[in-house]
Amino acid sequence: MPNQMTLDQFENILEEIGYITERDDRIALTTFLATELDKPLLVSGPAGVGKTEIAKVLSRVFEAPLIRLQCYEGLDETKALYEWNYQRQLLKIQMGREHLQEEDLFSTEYLLPRPLLQALLSEERTVLLIDEIDKTDSEFEAFLFELLGEFQVTIPEMGTIHAKKRPIVVLTSNGERELSDGLKRRCIFLHVEPPSVKKEVRILRAKIPDLPERLALEVARAVNVLRERLSLNKIPSVSETMDWAKALLVMGKTGLEPAWVDATLTLLLKSQEDVELFYREMGAERLLFESSKVESSKGAQGERHCHGHQQS
């Protein structure tokens, strides 16, 4: 279903709602193409780089309700698709023993839709987020093929249910296991890396308007060094960068100081093992020294996609 929107208009809306993209990250272009081609979008990348945020942003862009299926080990179709309302069915049996037909019990009246079926039955277009699909098993992936490929599901007692309005589908993966070729084939693929220094500064300034420019730059540079120079079990996420910047702002800081890096480090590093690694291999003073050498334009060639003006 065409969106009646150009790529430039899509990028402008992203900017208006405060979602920052760059030409090199391909987020705007790939997401736009997925919506135009009516294909599910499979977004991979480390935890905390903003994969889930893409679905939330699409919900705002297209003014479509967000329906979220949070995946976990052991998730099956009864939790993701539907369950029967056994209490109502039992009550119906007790009330109409003589004239009851089997089809009377297996209708939408007794169906309890879960997120996948909610998206298909919705009278309006929705954004369906299947979050952390890599936490499920290969059997659940195979179960999704019909939904992702044909926007329909089959319920044994009722037959095939087609989507009333095709949802915009976003799947995310942290890469805990390799996903099947069958799932990948049905999706448009996007890999998201942690933001460049320049992009993260723009995110900080957009989300925290009162943040001094100097502090935003120093925070982004320091986080970039932590992500790239240390073998952390968990790299700081964008939201954790924002928490750190907000904490420093609350304390009245306009720039980074070693003492305040030490005092607030656990806003970024969330395990004692990573904290010990930081002090063993770097420390606050060296972090500030190394981050002062990081170019703010590192990893960013332009502030926005400019596809119409790129050289081939």
Describe what this molecule looks like in 3D:
- By secondary structure, the chain is α/β, with parallel strands linked by helices.
- The protein folds into two domains: 7-80 and 116-191, Rossmann fold, CATH 3.40.50; 197-292.
- 45% of the residues lie in helices and 12% in strands.
- It has 15 helices and nine strands.
- The strands form three sheets. A five-stranded parallel sheet has the order 2-5-8-1-9, with helices on both faces.
- Helix 10 (197-207) packs across helix 11 (213-229) and helix 11 crosses helix 12.
- It is elongated and about 80 Å long.
- It starts with 6 loop residues before the first helix and ends in a 20-residue tail after the last helix.
- Residues 298-312 have low confidence and may be disordered.
Protein traits:
312 residues, alpha/beta, Rossmann fold, 9 strands, 45% helix
Tally of alpha and pi helices: 15
Low-confidence stretches: 298-312
Q: Architecture of the largest domain in CATH?
A: 3-Layer(aba) Sandwich
Task: Kindly state the number of beta strands.
Answer: 9
* Average pLDDT figure: 87
Compact overview of the structure:
The chain is 45% helix and 12% strand. It has 15 helices and nine strands.
Chain-wise SSE layout:
Elements: H1 7-16, H2 27-36, E1 41-44, H3 51-61, E2 66-70, H4 77-80, E3 82-84, H5 86-95, H6 102-105, E4 111-113, H7 115-121, E5 127-131, H8 138-150, E6 152-155, E7 159-162, E8 168-173, H9 181-185, E9 188-191, H10 197-207, H11 213-229, H12 238-250, H13 258-264, H14 272-281, H15 284-292
Helix pairs in contact: 10-11, 11-12, 11-15
